[in-house]
Amino acid sequence: MGNKLYVGNLPYDTNEDDLTALFAKAGNVSTVNVMRDRETGRARGFAFVEMATDQDAQNAISQLHEQSFGGRTLTVNEARAAAAAWRRWWWIRRRRGWPRRAWWRWRRWRATPGTALVAG
After folding, report:
1. pLDDT, tens digit (0-9, with 9 covering 90-100), for 67-78
2. pTM metric for this prediction
3. Does residue 52 contact residue 29 with C-beta atoms inside 8 Å?
């Protein structure tokens, strides 16, 4: 298990100091990164918290997952690698038929002279 955690469903007015104080109850906090909108600077509702050890990270997950913070229920999980998130995005799009190559193949076949289906 890694010691980097994903924290979701945060209130939009949350800052790094609030999260550091919250996660300090579960163990030593190394870094806190609250993701912010580039244009407005407002928090986007999720953050990444890095704990000092794997045991501290496990304690934080067990203590803070589905706990109330700022009127919202927190989601605390182990952070996944960016490559895993990309593979998941790609797989979901493929299952939904993206890109829709079968439609283009059919369209090309129908537009080719002499390939029309003849009844009877």
Report:
1. 999 999 999 999
2. 0.68
3. yes
Among 31, 75, 65, which residue's Cα sits nearest to residue 50? 31
- State how far the alpha carbon of 17 is from the alpha carbons of 13, 31, 66, 92, 116, in Å: 11, 11, 20, 36, 68
Cβ pair 82, 48 in contact under 8 A: no
Sketch the domain layout of the chain as residue ranges.
Answer: 4-84
Q: Structurally, what CATH architecture does the domain formed by 4-84 represent?
A: 2-Layer Sandwich (3.30)
Q: How far apart are CA 3 and CA 50, in angstroms?
A: 6
Q: What is the pLDDT of residues 2-45, one digit of tens each?
A: 799 999 999 999 999 999 999 999 999 999 999 998 898 899 99
Contact call for residues 69 and 12 (beta carbons, < 8 A):
no
